[in-house]
Structures are given as structure tokens and as C-alpha cells.
Write a structure and sequence with these properties.
Rossmann fold; 15 strands; about 30% helix; binds NADPH dihydro-nicotinamide-adenine-dinucleotide phosphate; ADH-like_C; acryloyl-CoA reductase (NADPH) activity; Putative oxidoreductase, Zn-dependent and NAD(P)-binding; ER; ADH-like_N
Length: about 325
């Protein structure tokens, strides 16, 4: 009989009612792919919370093993780039959405989706960063490409105590930016200052409907929240600035005016981590290796086991998680 391994499986009944169960699978149950990986660490991202809670249509193939990212060791491969024993990371590519994902002890995927685990980084470290951290790095790179360097002025990070936000605060402060962290949890101010924030503001300041233009407060921003928050961030961005938008924790709408774009030359930079080309991923992970203080990862992450994934998924959509959650399998 084939060896079984633990997995979380999300299913839907004839009435499209979703259920989540811990089950045993065999490798024969996995979907097609040319590399099989022993998953050593994964994480709980906001998107995983939406998938497991069913609060948004993240899962588009039933039944499905959720989990959008993992780090682990190749156990078998027919892909030219990978051999048994290689340490790898996967983020996105529809894994945990349309392809069986990270919440199983084994994953079989397309080898083109994998990137090597950077030297000196453990699977646990890589998942303390996870898709949230890799996305934060994509935001920082986008701002830099737009010329938003520390001398241009402060940068704001919204949803700062969350996963993307925490890593963005940490990276931007290490690079010398004056970081203004916006949070709805004032009790997390000491945590954000410890990560490197120069100022902490209340999310309420950015939550009301935005004026077309408001007082210029920052040269750029990383926005994980969307909706009125992003509209306010744009209206408060100084002349020629830019905002990297990656999230929708506050809503998918954007009730803004064109005034910041046409009167201040502000740019809105869209960030997608899921389908980002391999070269972009390699650059982001290389930069994480050089620009993120791995010592800080311990303070911005908590570790749980496989059995804690479902509870953590519900907590993250309720905004109860601080920083990053790492799952040691
Ligand atoms: P987290 O839940 O860890 O962080 C989101 C943070 O947003 C919360 O911690 C909270 O921060 C803030 N927040 C939550 N609800 C609201 C609300 N109603 N109004 C205002 N602020 C709110 O999630 P992640 O950091 O993992 O992800 C953040 C966002 O980025 C998500 O929308 C996610 O889907 C998206 N994302 C997008 C990616 C891409 O490729 N574009 C990749 C990864 C994530 P605080 O308590 O500090 O206010």
C-alpha cells in the first residue's frame, strides 16, 4: 500500500456549501507536475484565510488542498533544473487556488514554479517571509524603480501590523527610509517601532472617504488595505510620488479621484506576486537575502504546527494575527 500523508482538504457539496477536513492522501492523489516536494514549512497568508473560511472565491477547483506557499526538499524530479535533495520555495502560480497546495506533507508541482531556497536561509525562515514578505519586497523594488529613495521623504505602510506590512516596515527601515506605519491596533505600536517604524499613525486617519487632494505627507507608500485607505494614501502623496498597491484587507474598491495623478503626477504601482515571472521572483528573494534583517524575523513571526492551520486561517481574516505565522510541518 502507498504511504499516506496528512493534508487539509477543502470540499464543496451539491449546494456549494464548503467544508474543511484533515485527511490522509497518497502521492497518487496529488495533481500533475514534474517535481514532488516534501513540504517542511508553510505559512498562513490572508489569501489562505479567505480560502479556508470561504469568505472569498479563492478556491476554483474542488476538492482542493489549500496553501499558497511552501518551502521544502525535492523528493523526486523529472525537471531539468531540480534534483532530489534540492531545497526550494514556491509562492503562488495558482497553488492553493487551482492546484493542490502547501497544506499537505507532499506537494507535486511544475518545476518552473520553484525557486531555490537562498543560501543561509532555512525553510522556516523562508516561510516567516512567505508570500507576504516576498510581496512586500516586490513593493519596495517597485518604489525604488520609480525613484522613491529615502531622500525623497517618508513612506507610509498601511496594514502595518499584518504580514505584508510588518515585512515592508522592516525592509524599508533597514534601507534607511523614514517609515510611517498605519495600524488599527495601537497596542502594536511598540512592535512596529521595534521593526523600524519612525512614526505610527492610526488607521482611522485614512479610513474616511478621501478628499481629491490632501496635505502632502509622504513620497510613497505600500498599501495592503485598498478602498478608502488607498484613496487617502494617494491623496496625501507628494508631487511625483508613487504608491505600490498590493492588498485589499479593507476592501477591493478604490473610491478615489484622478486628482493625485493629474495634478501631482502621482503613480499607482500595481503589485502581483502570483504570476510574477521567475526573474522577478529571483530578484525579490535575492534582495530579501540582503535587505531583510533575518534577526527581526523571529520578532515578526509566530510558529504553529499543522494542527493550528485552520484556526489561524480564521484568525487572519478577522485581523487577529500580528506579523507572520509559520507552520512547521
Ligand atoms: P494580514 O491579515 O496579515 O494583514 C492585513 C492587515 O490589514 C491587518 O493586519 C490589519 O493591519 C489591516 N486590516 C485588516 N482589516 C482591515 C480593515 N477592514 N481596514 C483597514 N485595515 C485592515 O494579511 P497579509 O499581510 O498577508 O496580506 C495583506 C493584503 O495583501 C491582503 O489583502 C492580501 O490578500 C494581499 N496580498 C496580495 C498579494 C499580491 O500578490 N498582490 C500577495 C500577498 C498578499 P493593522 O492591524 O496594522 O491595521
Amino acid at each position: 500500500m502507498s504511504e499516506t500523508f496528512k493534508a487539509i482538504l477543502v470540499s464543496r457539496d451539491a449546494e456549494k456549501k464548503q467544508s474543511v477536513a484533515v485527511t490522509d492522501l497518497t502521492e497518487a492523489d496529488l495533481m500533475e507536475g514534474d517535481v514532488t516536494v516534501a513540504v517542511e514549512a508553510t505559512t498562513v497568508n490572508y489569501k489562505d484565510g479567505l480560502a479556508i473560511s470561504g469568505k472569498a472565491p479563492v478556491i476554483r477547483r474542488w476538492p482542493l488542498v489549500p496553501g499558497i506557499d511552501f518551502a521544502g526538499t525535492v523528493v523526486s524530479s523529472s525537471h531539468a533544473d531540480w534534483r532530489k535533495g534540492d531545497k526550494v520555495i514556491l509562492n503562488g502560480w495558482g497553488v492553493g487556488e487551482t492546484h493542490f497546495g502547501a497544506y499537505a506533507e507532499r506537494a507535486r508541482v511544475n518545476g518552473d514554479w520553484l525557486v531555490p531556497l537562498p543560501q543561509g536561509m532555512s525553510p522556516h525562515d523562508a516561510m516567516a517571509i512567505g508570500t507576504a514578505g516576498y510581496t512586500a519586497m516586490l513593493c519596495v523594488i517597485a518604489l525604488e524603480r520609480h525613484g522613491i529613495v529615502p531622500d525623497r521623504g517618508p513612506v507610509v505602510v498601511t496594514g502595518a501590523a499584518g504580514g505584508v506590512g510588518s515585512v515592508a516596515v522592516s525592509i524599508l527601515s533597514s534601507l534607511g527610509y523614514h517609515v510611517i506605519a498605519s495600524t488599527g491596533r495601537s497596542a502594536e505600536s511598540p512592535y512596529l517601532i521595534d521593526l523600524g517604524a519612525a512614526e505610527v499613525i492610526s488607521r482611522d486617519e485614512l479610513a474616511q472617504p478621501a478628499k481629491p487632494l490632501a496635505k502632502e505627507r509622504w513620497a510613497g507608500g505600500v498599501d495592503a488595505v485598498g478602498s478608502h485607505t488607498l484613496a487617502n494614501v494617494l491623496s496625501m502623496t507628494s508631487y511625483g510620488g508613487a504608491v505600490a498597491a498590493c492588498g485589499l484587507a479593507g476592501g477591493m474598491d478604490l473610491p478615489a479621484s484622478v486628482a493625485p495623478f493629474i495634478l501631482r503626477g502621482v503613480c499607482l504601482l500595481g503589485i502581483d506576486s502570483v504570476m510574477a515571472p521567475k526573474a522577478v521572483r529571483l530578484e525579490a528573494w535575492r534582495r530579501i537575502g540582503t535587505d531583510l534583517d533575518l534577526q527581526k524575523l523571529a520578532s515578526l513571526s509566530t510558529t504553529i504546527g499543522f494542527d493550528g492551520i485552520i484556526d489561524a486561517a480564521h484568525d487572519i481574516v478577522e485581523g487577529k494575527i500580528r506579523g507572520r505565522v509559520v507552520v512547521d510541518m
